[in-house]
């Protein structure tokens, strides 16, 4: 719990589907929260929760004990940090939550090290509903001396924190591995449903066959339910999933791992995005059609 008379200040850079509920849960936990978002109109609703909204990153981070980055990619993170640098407290802890991949976390680590800024590599597992309910899973890597300081922050937004190493980079590596699994699950559900429909089987029968059995999981149930109910409201978009699939491919190339399923996953996300489905939920890959070689895919 926070000292309500002298709350610690947290800046959240990025208030999208994940960043906004993270900011709200931190405010509920007693932190003094300020935020910045590239499109400021998307952050305005946070004012009703007592959160201060700023029009630039520097104003948001001024005086902050912790700076959380919840942005689309590594370039966005570094751009925001460079804009905020002049107002960063010397003792502030940078908590990098965005999914950025191996190369970009190394760039962020170098940037922080050059400025002697403490960095916690902390990508999360979970999308809209887990973020709203403080049920995320944090994958964290940082020097052991930082663990006690950031643990209360993670407890305010997540149900579990898994420490995977004492140097930034390990958590981002594990996040990429998990994302390869998420891609396989997503397209496995989508293609099973596609085949069922092609065979004139009611999708509800597929749902009933899996529900409650050894193949079921909350993720599978949610995504298959979205297909059955024709509800592709975004919890994590096709375009973001395509970006993450690219990070899996990057890691495979860097490590020499052969990942044909991951390659196919990326192609299906790309086909969905090219079909105009980029802003819809990742399971809208079910709606994607194979594109011809002439399309440039």
Automatic annotation (TrEMBL):
Residue numbers annotated as active site: 175
GO terms of molecular function: NAD binding; NADP binding; oxidoreductase activity
InterPro entries (UniProt xref): 6-PGluconate_DH-like_C_sf (IPR008927), 6PGD_dom2 (IPR013328), 6PGDH_NADP-bd (IPR006115), HIBADH-like_NADP-bd (IPR029154), HIBADH-related (IPR015815), HIBADH-related_NP60_sf (IPR051265), NAD(P)-bd_dom_sf (IPR036291)
Domain 6-phosphogluconate dehydrogenase NADP-binding: 9-165
Occurrences of domain 3-hydroxyisobutyrate dehydrogenase-like NAD-binding (ranges): 169-284
One Pfam family named in its UniProt record: NAD_binding_11
Entry coiled-coil feature ranges: none
Keywords assigned by UniProt, alphabetized: NAD, Oxidoreductase
Family designation: Belongs to the HIBADH-related family.
Protein's recorded name: 3-hydroxyisobutyrate dehydrogenase
Species, as recorded: Psychromicrobium lacuslunae
